[in-house]
Amino acid sequence: MKKMIFALLAGLVLCACEKALVSEEKTSEDNGNLRVSVFEIEKTPFTSLTRGEAVADICTHLNFAVYTPDGTRVKQVNQTSDAANFGTASFQLEEGDYLLVVVGHSSLKNPTMTNPAKIQFTNASGYTDTFLYCEDISIGEKPENRQVSLDRIVSLCRFVVTDDYPAEVSQMRFYYTGGSGAFDARTGLGSVNSKQDLFFDVTSGQKQFDLYTFLHDTNGAIHLTVTAYDEDDNIVNERVFEVPMERNHITWLSGDYFSGSGSSATTISGITVNTDWAGETHLNF
């Protein structure tokens, strides 16, 4: 598909540019004087409604980063959920003040974390449920042990097609603005004006599509254009929506696109994960 190829090439160019900015992945320093352990991800009061899931279903990547107070990155450790030490990291640091940031996500690649005010994902790597911990710390003569809790910082538009696909439709495109693909670690809020662009192959019959973004405030909206293509990249249908969003909140957007104008907790490797969203809104079009 010409549009898909173009999008992939653009993503590869962007990723290649970003690669030069991100330091090479380092392993955790076993005897460091800052020891970080993730013990909780997105706690909510609705524990009686929870069900078990694997941590990898919620968060497949953890990124630990340490910065100086002026935002200069000192060290970074990236982990995947298949690692034996997933959820723990250790750093050897000089005495002084630092900013500690931990990000949990399930994107295809790690975000660019050179600048804590602009931790950025790309269209190529994808946007997923994302969790954050950020705190100023001081390192003295004695080692520091931190058990940290990560909180959800994204908003989710869950788009659902309720009618049948025309036989010629092979791909759906979701292009949206108003949110951000990057966030400020100190606030968890969006820090750039992004053009988020996702393509889905629908030959399998997929009807539900999850669109994540970082809002610039606790409430906001995205301007969403949904386009259906055939295998020759011809537009079969296109519709535009203004979607109200809230941080840590799911907005369901459901309807006849073509014919019309929970909660869980799991413990694994010492990490408790509670994936309750704060709330949901259901809208029909």
Quick gist of this model?
The chain is mainly β and 285 residues long.
Labels describing this entry:
4-stranded mixed beta sheet; mainly beta; 19 strands; elongated; 9-stranded mixed beta sheet; 285 residues
Task: Record the SSE blueprint.
Elements: H1 2-19, E1 34-41, H2 55-58, E2 61-67, E3 73-80, E4 88-91, E5 96-105, E6 119-120, E7 131-139, E8 144-152, E9 155-161, E10 169-177, E11 182-183, E12 196-201, E13 208-213, E14 219-230, E15 235-246, E16 249-255, E17 265-268, E18 271-274, E19 279-284
Parallel strand pairs: 1-8, 1-18, 9-16, 16-19
Antiparallel strand pairs: 1-4, 2-3, 2-5, 5-7, 6-11, 7-8, 9-13, 10-12, 10-14, 14-15, 17-18
Largest sheet at a glance? 9 strands, mixed
Q: From the structure provided, what is the oligomeric state, counting identical versus distinct chains? A: single chain
Reading the helices and strands in chain order gives HEHEEEEEEEEEEEEEEEEEE
Strand residue percentage: over 45%
Uncertain residue segments = 2-25, 43-52, 262-269
Average pLDDT, to the nearest integer?
Answer: 83
Helix content: under 10%
Helix vs. strand class = mainly beta
Radius of gyration: 20 Å
Query: Which geometry do the CA atoms define?
Result: elongated
Summed up, the helix count is 2
Distance between the termini: 29 Å
Write down how many β-strands occur, each being a DSSP E stretch of 2 or more residues.
19
